[in-house]
């Protein structure tokens, strides 16, 4: 894509992503979120064999790492994969 700016990560951002993706459950959750343009948190919960509190913890880690965006609407939440951040992380790893 001509003129597209590639996002770069700081070392700290890359470390947060690595920590978040070190948990296989979070990788599965991220795949589930990435399979849709936007997915309701309740839909993720239905497919994950964890408590609501545990899912909340995993989503917080993914959000802190910058991998997902959580848009809250009252007591509901919609989740979106931040592909630009994931692409930047892949580029970061490619430099190793």
Walk me through this protein's architecture.
The protein has 96 residues and is an alpha+beta fold. The chain has one domain (11-94): Orthogonal Bundle (Arc Repressor Mutant, subunit A), CATH 1.10.10.10. Helices cover 56% and strands 15% of the residues. Strands 1-3-2 form a three-stranded antiparallel sheet. The protein is globular, with a radius of gyration of 14 Å.
Provide the spatial order of strands within the biggest beta sheet. 1-3-2
Counting DSSP E segments of at least 2 residues, the number of strands comes to 3
> Class by helix and strand content?
alpha+beta
Describe the largest sheet.
3 strands, antiparallel
CATH superfamily grouping: Winged helix-like DNA-binding domain superfamily/Winged helix DNA-binding domain
How far is the first residue's CA from the last residue's CA?
A: 24 Å
> What's the mean pLDDT score?
92
Q: Estimate percent helicity.
A: 55-70%
- Structural Rg: 14 Å
**Count of individual helical segments:** 5
At the fold tier of CATH, the topology name is Arc Repressor Mutant, subunit A
Poorly predicted residue ranges = none
């Amino acid at each position: 894509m001509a003129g597209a700016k590639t996002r770069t990560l700081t070392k700290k951002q890359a470390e947060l992503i690595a920590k978040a993706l070190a948990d296989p459950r979070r990788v599965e959750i991220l795949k589930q979120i990435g399979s849709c343009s936007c997915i309701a948190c309740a839909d993720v919960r239905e497919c994950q064999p964890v408590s609501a509190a545990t899912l909340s913890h995993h989503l917080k880690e993914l959000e802190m790492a910058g991998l997902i965006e959580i848009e809250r609407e009252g007591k509901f939440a919609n989740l979106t994969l931040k592909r630009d951040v994931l692409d930047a992380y892949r580029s970061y790893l490619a430099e190793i």
